[in-house]
Write a structure and sequence with these properties.
The structure is a single chain. The protein is of the alpha/beta class. About 55% of the residues lie in helices and about 10% in strands. The protein is built from 19 helices and ten strands. It has helices spanning about 10-20, 70-85, 100-110, 110-120, 125-145, 175-180, 180-200, 220-235, 255-265, 285-295, 305-315, 320-330, 335-340, 345-350, 370-375, 380-390, 395-405, 410-440, 445-470, and strands at about 1-5, 35-40, 45-50, 55-60, 150-160, 160, 175, 205-215, 245, 270-275. The protein is globular, with a radius of gyration of 27 Å.
Length: about 475
Amino acid sequence: MILKVINHDFVYDMKNLCTVFFPWEKINDDGQDNITVITKADGNEYFVSCKLFDREVSKTHILSGSEDGATEMSVLLYNVLSEITGFKPPWGILFGVRPAKLMHRFVDEMGEEKARKYFIDEFLATAKKTDLALEVMKHENKIIALSKPESFSLYVSIPFCPSRCAYCSFVSHSIERTHKLLEPYVELLCTELEKTAEIAKKLNLRLETIYFGGGTPTTLSAEQLTRLFGVIKSDFDLTHLREFTVEAGRPDTVTEESENETVAQQTAEKPVFGLVEDANDSIMAKVGGVLRYAFIPLGFGNEEGGWQCAASVISGFSAKEGIVTTMGVLAGASDEDTEALAGAGDVSDVISGEEAGAEESEDGNAKNAVDAIALWFPTGLVAFCFLLFNLLDSPCLAAISTMANELRNRKWFWFAILFQNAFAYIVTLIVYQLGNLFTTGHFGVGTVFAIIFVVIFFYSLNSVLSKHFCTL
């Protein structure tokens, strides 16, 4: 999508709010696209327009002296995008990961009742989400109450990752390019921890929580982690420590050595080790694991790679490019890997392994992203059917919202969506089952249904043609 920011400095707010409405769209500031958003400030007059395919909505607002410019421009953009898409994000113009932190501030400044009203009236958050932020704030207050004025928390930043995940928006560096910085960074970090400990002792501060974040802290070697933990244990007073957390957001960085020996033995007596992003334990894996059975007759719902394919199909309902991104993330690809996949030539050859080769490493895991994806599609027919289904099923949310506005009839709108997906399923079923019959000789229940659908299709076509020629 194209986002034009004219005569104001609210670029960050505008980009993030556009991402809320169009999460799979890459935002550019120039060029041509089916989605174009213009935000403009002309003195106190604010203007926002959005063109979605052939439909356009625009609004203006005159800024008063007491109003916040960034907030009012965000509200204007929210209203324009809500009208043109028919979608109203429940958090309103808020984005990010800590709305409760914002609620803390407003409650301190104006009290709970006015803060709640401000969230709903000014930020356009729903009452349900506003109450959720209040509830989280109250739970956090119980934990905060356990601390004393001299309490402090230690955050240890490890801004490195094995590779950059496609969905990531945090500031981090891939060790593919910055591995030479790892060791000097650890050395300087140890020095900084020692200095921090000296300051804490002079001020008689009590350390209550330690959090290793990133990036991916477990990108460091076991030896490097041990050195950092050693400095913390030797230089800081851990008498009052209540939490020691180490993020391990990439399962491929967790080894028996780093988890058991390094973390468990080097931290406090009761360490907390958080594996926060194991794809196989994710909600998407659970949902995809259930839905994959529906795709078995289409060839790509098998045990090997089945839930990943189902999850990719689900993401495609938001935007078709989301399929590639989801597959790249689940295969452990970096941004560079995803771009390489996109430009690798014939897509069906790549994902079926006919070009890259679906070999495995000695430990049984696919040696790279292409090989990992190739394992999900054992034959070219399976790969083709996956592409065919995603080509024929319902389009992206932007197109769906346009359909809803053009049809202006809820019954026909849902009929169109169901028809598109049913059509995609039946056509793909026919192609896979008959293709499998001709290439391998396999005949099963799915083959029977495929033949029945073919017979119904030709019978219906013959009836229509006969009636048409009789009329003539």
